[in-house]
Amino acid sequence: MDPEGNINNKRLCVKNCHIEFCFKSNSPVARSPRTVISVIGSWSNWRIATPLQKEGSNKWFTELSLPPGEYSFRFMVGDSTDLHPVMAVSDKYERQEVVNRDGQRVMCNKIRVDVAPAFYLFYATGWRQCTLMYKMLKDGNPLTAAWQVAAMDDSPSRAEPCGENSRWKQAIIALPAGVDASDRDRYSMQFFIQGPRLGDSSDEDNAGGSRDSSRRRSSVRANNGNGNGAQQSAEDAAAARWFAPLPDDGVPGDLRSQVKVDTPDKQSTSACYQLRWPGGWKLQRGTITKFPCVTKPPVLLCADIDGTMVNEHSDKKEQFWMDARTKEFQEYWESNAALARSVLVFNTGRSKGQLIWLLKEKPMLAVPDVLITAVGTKIWYLPDGMRCFQDPTEVEWIEDKLWSNRLDEGWDLQQALSAAGEMFKLFNRDSAERVKWLDKGQEHPHRVALQVHTAVLDDLIERLQEAIDKRQLQARIIMSGAGDWRYVDVVHRLAGKLEALEWVRQVYGVPVERCATAGDSCNDILMLDGKMPAIVVGNAQEELVRWYHEQNDHGRIVLTDKPEAAGVLEGLARHGLY
């Protein structure tokens, strides 16, 4: 906490994610000293096998620390790193069918790692600073006589849930150490919100965005010893000073001062709010609602912008509905997904400067956390701390230098330009122009871009590959687009929309099954054609819809009924990621 009372960094650490994997077998192959027993799972995208230690004659075990999430795994008998029929499915674990890297359906074990057992409270308020006053109870009995104090921090959301200048605040109250999973629901919590001092005009008098002006925000005795947060008259009520520690024997006389408080409506039978069990909760306009998505792993959504998140139409009425769909997504994302630590990525043909211009023109567009540009050769991050408190059009986005340095290895821009330049001599011999320059690497040094007519497209790609091979370039060719003119990009062999997305996914540590991609055109096939759940929005181009119907994807890709950003929301819901 800094001298002004602001929380700079806070992390809840609970040792509840250490998972023991146990395998038993009397097979002669398994019991052979030369056989390695290991476990492999979706937490490493089926790439890393962890050996188990032998215990006794027929038992092997290991312990892994995994982030919250739902994982598939199998035990391996032998040292193969591929999914193989000899790998075991144990009766000890729940089973599920998954599709492996080769597109085969296989039976796997399933395990769920829950988030830390705690009360996760999100509070919609106009107060810039407020404190949570709470008592935790077990079987209805308070664990402490005194009201406990917890600062409510700013959440990672730009939403204004109660009108202009309001915000979502958050607090995490962990259960006592050593609580068994079967006992968690025996715990509940009573609380009220303490705001700024009465008469303090520096803060908004808009606590929870009450339903009406008669909503009570009278003062309370912060620690009256009865455990119910009973309200008192304005004349004799007392509460603690801002962030003052509360002693067990009540508020001493020198701390008696009046503060703004948020407690239930007059119609409520309780003088304070109540959370009946641990989990995610929201308090908005005097109403408490369950918020279960905060107890699940975060979601990473990677979407195209034009035609997917926003669209343009000459008809004003149509434009109104398009913007309304964009606004609907923004409101959902900022008041739900962002609160649950989810990550929004825009994977676009636009440059960073063009996105900043679009955010100014379209204030209803959700602000991304990450921007992938130039066919996956550039990755930009919104700076930490800037997501909520500064205009994203006025901050300097941070380029991922590790990614760009990775693309430096083996890349020669001049050789790539030389290879692409040969195509002009081969295919623009007569007056007909069939090849055009789009990017010579000035703005994006790991990319050379051409626009090519379909009449020579196949031949040009073959000749371009020969020119690359002749120069021994560490490069690949990416073709995209629709219509008579297509885009042909020469990029580093490790670059690409899907490759950059996978890099970002690993940076944030989001499991593959909690990631989703969304697009509307053939340009987006580069990221839709992966292993992540994919969304083709209802207004998609005919060529993309045709591609969708040709995919034997076992439900990994959905074609939505709704268009644009509303289709993205529909797709998230159908994938179970809403």
TrEMBL record:
Residues 298-574 form the Sucrose phosphatase-like domain. Keywords: Hydrolase. It comes from the Eukaryota. Transmembrane segments: none annotated. InterPro entries: AMPK1_CBM, HAD-like_sf, HAD_sf, Ig-like_fold, Ig_E-set, SPP-like_dom, Sucrose_Phosphatase. Residues 37-89 form the AMP-activated protein kinase glycogen-binding domain. Residues 220-236 have a biased composition (Low complexity). Residues 195-236, 244-263 are annotated as: Disordered. Pfam families: AMPK1_CBM, S6PP. Gene3D superfamilies: 3.90.1070.10, HAD superfamily/HAD-like, Immunoglobulins. PANTHER family: SUCROSE-PHOSPHATASE 2-RELATED. This is Sucrose phosphatase-like domain-containing protein. It comes from Tetradesmus obliquus. The lineage of its organism: Eukaryota, Viridiplantae, Chlorophyta, core chlorophytes, Chlorophyceae.
